[in-house]
Amino acid sequence: MKPVEYNTGKIPNWCPGCGNFAIWNSIKKALANLDIEPHKLALVSGIGCSGKMVNYVRSYALQTLHGRTMPIATGIKLANPDMTVLVNGGDGDGYGMGVGHLIHAIRRNINVTYIVHHNKVYGLTTGQAAPTSPEGTITKSTPFGVVDATINPLILAMATGATFVARGYTGESEHLTDLIMQGINHKGFALIDVFQPCVTFGGQYKYEYYDERVVKMDKMPSHDEAVKLAADQEKLSIGVYSQYERAPYEARHPEISRTVEMKDVSKLIEAFI
Ligand SMILES: Cc1ncc(C[n+]2csc(CCOP(=O)(O)OP(=O)(O)O)c2C)c(N)n1
Ligand code: SF4
Q1: Which residues contact 206 (CB under 8 A, 6 or more apart)?
Q2: Are 160 and 107 in contact (CB under 8 A)?
Q3: Which pTM was predicted?
């Protein structure tokens, strides 16, 4: 497969310069490098600019309700363990509305890769505060500045026991492609939080902001170091923060695996017809 073969023919309608284009390209490159054919891929997305990804990558695709990607992705993976399941959503979708689902998907270690488009605002609805908007940020919904504490997705995921936690940046697309490949190859839940400038409503959080602060990690840090790096607001480290082995959910539930002999359920079905 070549990256271009994952195009659907639909032209993305993201704003010119939006970081989502880089995520789109990195997803296609990662899929091509791993030779994952479209019929073996399920793409699940939330609602938002990020969620439009399902229209632009050739695959089985489902755009869910706002914040509800995880229950759908879980169902797809458990019913079809051989499928690669890739989830896309915004930081509002995943860390706001969907944060409860996220925590349980992490602790179950559902074998899906979750790419979060971290732009610090609600993009589609034109720039309200997201759970990642730093305190004091003035947005349409917070004219006097955000007063809530900011969610740190990497620390949240590590504290919940995530088996793969990484951070990427759309200004480093080759690096991002590599992270997505690592996430897909990882056997278990993979969170890839991606700094994705919203060039229209993102306020100061544009490419210039990230270009000045983003640095690549040369190796995976120790746990304590990972927490410190994740908390650092000035030096923004990208790369894999944490990875360890733990059997994914379906491996710990052989009864839901396809290898279990199927019983004849026709009589049971008839009883309901
Ligand atoms: C249940 C529900 N509440 C609110 C909305 C309105 N809504 C649509 S997109 C969105 C925010 C999207 O922001 P984010 O998840 O960060 O994604 P982005 O657009 O930035 O990619 C909201 C609040 C909705 N569609 N459904
Ligand atoms: S509003 Fe922001 S996130 Fe949405 S397409 Fe435009 S630049 Fe991208």
Answers
A1: 197, 199
A2: yes
A3: 0.95
**Ligand 1 centroid – CA 245 distance (Å):** 33
Q: In what order do the strands lie in the sheet with 60-63?
A: 60-63, 41-45, 84-90, 113-118, 190-195, 164-169, 236-243, 214-216
Q: What are the structural domains, with CATH classification, of the chain?
A: 3-272 (3.40.50.970)
Strands (E), the chain: 41-45, 60-63, 84-90, 113-118, 121-122, 128-129, 164-169, 190-195, 214-216, 236-243
SS3 230: helix
Please give the sequence-ordered ranges of beta strands (E in DSSP) within 183-250, or none if there are none: 190-195, 214-216, 236-243
pLDDT-derived band of residue 122, with 50, 70 and 90 as boundaries? very high
- Decide if 12 contacts 20 (C-beta within 8 A): yes
The conformational region for residue 161 under phi > 0 = left, psi -120 to 50 = alpha, else beta, is left
- Please check whether residue 105 is in contact with residue 73, taking contact to mean a CB–CB distance below 8 angstroms: yes
Q: What is the Å distance from ligand 2's center to 126 Cα? A: 8
Ligand 2 contact, 194 CB (< 6 A): no
200-238: pLDDT as tens digits? 999 999 999 999 999 999 999 999 999 999 999 999 999
The finding on whether 123 has its CB within 6 A of some atom of ligand 2 is yes
Q: What is the pLDDT of residues 187-204, one digit of tens each?
A: 999 999 999 999 999 999
